[in-house]
Structure formats: structure tokens, C-alpha cells
Amino acid sequence: MEKNGIVSATLAEIYLEQGYLEKAIAIYDQLLAKEPENDSYRVRLSSLKKTLKEKSRSPLFKRVLRNKNR
Known about the structure:
- The chain is mainly alpha-helical.
- The chain contains four helices and no strands.
- α1 (about 10-15) runs antiparallel to α2 (about 20-35) and α2 runs antiparallel to α3 (about 40-55).
- The chain is globular and about 35 Å long.
């Protein structure tokens, strides 16, 4: 959960714009847990997880993720 308690699709999209794909996925996971019937969250989360999987195959992306996690 976010430290400040704010969890929203808008926050997830801001994370995406800043390049924090994993944080955006975590937010959508939380949103979907709160609203399991929300199909738009489910579709977006699925899309983001697919993007992460595809990008994780790239050596450059792995290097960028390592640097962001430091």
C-alpha cells in the first residue's frame, strides 16, 4: 500500500509516465483487490504485466530497473 494512503488509477498512470512500471502494476493490483468486478482495472493490469514481461527480456531494461531500485 502507498505510504500516504492514496491509491488511484491516476497515481498508477503518473508512475507509468515517470517510468515506474512495477509501481503502477502494484497500484492496479491494490485497486483490483478493492474492486474485483472492475473490468477496466483488470484489463489495464493485464496489459501492464504483459508489457513488463516483454520488456524484462531486454538487457537494457533490466539495467534501467536495477538502477531505479538503488
